[in-house]
């Protein structure tokens, strides 16, 4: 009885995550209806809350896949409750990604939950655990872009449409960055089980600096241009224009004042 109760509690959705979902729903409604006096504030809260939800789901996907692959310790660590405060790297998983969204509109990959890899047998399982997180971002991006590629935007208010476009941009950038085969990112975690022991030992010391290396490259204008050209191409294939993502980011940065160009959009 005690064990069953404990296991059930380990998988119960946390009030913290439920609160974030509630903020997403309320601010999404305010963005849709125009209820807020300052639309930018509603968009900011809606996109930020929805982004944190996606980060929680990203980490949950890692943990849930690990659970079914043999690591039963993830439950006791609180990873299955979707509580962002339970993650091993709360700073990397939540705080820094939100800061980067505010500063540059980039979906920063979060820090992974701690998986006891020794409990897991089979290279495919290890690869799937690493891939589960960014695949969640891909799924989230498809949900955000569905109204665009399904031509279901009739009656959708501009502010909400722009907010969805910007949120989709964040999900696509997060998925693309996470899938890079760079030590410390999930893309490397996918291929790592297939590398020789010697190569893994040589690469291991560079894992803490992989993300910093990627963002240092993105500071280079040539690399940044190519990266966002790829992002724009993906979003356009999903029915989202540069104009919509631009206006979504402008609305999100409400402290900069209203953009007349976006306000005049049909």
Automatic annotation (TrEMBL):
<comment type="similarity">
    <text>Belongs to the peptidase M50B family.</text>
</comment>
<feature type="transmembrane region" description="Helical">
    <location>
        <begin position="16"/>
        <end position="35"/>
    </location>
</feature>
<keyword id="KW-0378">Hydrolase</keyword>
<dbReference type="GO" id="GO:0046872">
    <property type="term" value="F:metal ion binding"/>
</dbReference>
<protein>
    <submittedName>
        <fullName>Membrane protein</fullName>
    </submittedName>
</protein>
<feature type="transmembrane region" description="Helical">
    <location>
        <begin position="42"/>
        <end position="61"/>
    </location>
</feature>
<dbReference type="InterPro" id="IPR052348">
    <property type="entry name" value="Metallopeptidase_M50B"/>
</dbReference>
<keyword id="KW-0482">Metalloprotease</keyword>
<keyword id="KW-1003">Cell membrane</keyword>
<feature type="transmembrane region" description="Helical">
    <location>
        <begin position="162"/>
        <end position="185"/>
    </location>
</feature>
<dbReference type="GO" id="GO:0006508">
    <property type="term" value="P:proteolysis"/>
</dbReference>
<feature type="transmembrane region" description="Helical">
    <location>
        <begin position="206"/>
        <end position="228"/>
    </location>
</feature>
<dbReference type="GO" id="GO:0005886">
    <property type="term" value="C:plasma membrane"/>
</dbReference>
<keyword id="KW-0862">Zinc</keyword>
<keyword id="KW-0645">Protease</keyword>
<keyword id="KW-0472">Membrane</keyword>
<feature type="transmembrane region" description="Helical">
    <location>
        <begin position="127"/>
        <end position="150"/>
    </location>
</feature>
<feature type="transmembrane region" description="Helical">
    <location>
        <begin position="90"/>
        <end position="115"/>
    </location>
</feature>
<keyword id="KW-1133">Transmembrane helix</keyword>
<dbReference type="GO" id="GO:0008237">
    <property type="term" value="F:metallopeptidase activity"/>
</dbReference>
<keyword id="KW-0479">Metal-binding</keyword>
<dbReference type="InterPro" id="IPR044537">
    <property type="entry name" value="Rip2-like"/>
</dbReference>
<keyword id="KW-0812">Transmembrane</keyword>
């Amino acid at each position: 009885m005690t064990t069953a109760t404990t296991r059930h509690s380990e998988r119960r959705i946390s009030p913290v995550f439920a609160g974030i979902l509630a903020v997403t729903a309320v601010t999404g409604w305010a963005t849709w209806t125009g209820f807020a006096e300052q639309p930018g504030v509603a968009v900011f809260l809606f996109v930020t809350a929805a982004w944190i939800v996606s980060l929680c789901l990203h980490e949950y996907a890692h943990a849930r896949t690990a659970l079914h692959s043999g690591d039963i310790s993830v439950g006791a660590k609180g990873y299955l409750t979707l509580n962002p405060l339970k993650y091993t790297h709360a700073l990397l998983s939540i705080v820094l990604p939100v800061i980067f969204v505010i500063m540059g509109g980039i979906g920063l990959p979060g820090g992974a939950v701690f998986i006891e890899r020794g409990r897991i047998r089979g290279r495919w399982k290890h690869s799937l655990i690493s891939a589960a997180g960014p695949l969640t971002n891909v799924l989230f991006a498809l949900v955000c872009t569905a109204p665009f590629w399904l031509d279901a935007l009739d009656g959708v208010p501009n502010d909400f449409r722009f907010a969805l476009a910007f949120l989709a941009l964040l999900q696509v950038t997060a998925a693309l960055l996470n899938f890079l085969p760079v030590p410390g990112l999930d893309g490397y975690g996918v291929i790592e089980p297939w590398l020789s022991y010697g190569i893994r030992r040589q690469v291991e010391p560079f894992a803490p600096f992989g993300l910093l290396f990627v963002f240092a490259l993105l500071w280079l204008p040539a690399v940044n241009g190519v990266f966002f050209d790829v992002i724009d191409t993906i979003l356009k294939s999903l029915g989202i224009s540069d104009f919509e993502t631009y206006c979504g980011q402008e609305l999100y940065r409400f402290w900069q004042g209203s953009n007349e160009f976006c306000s005049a959009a049909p």
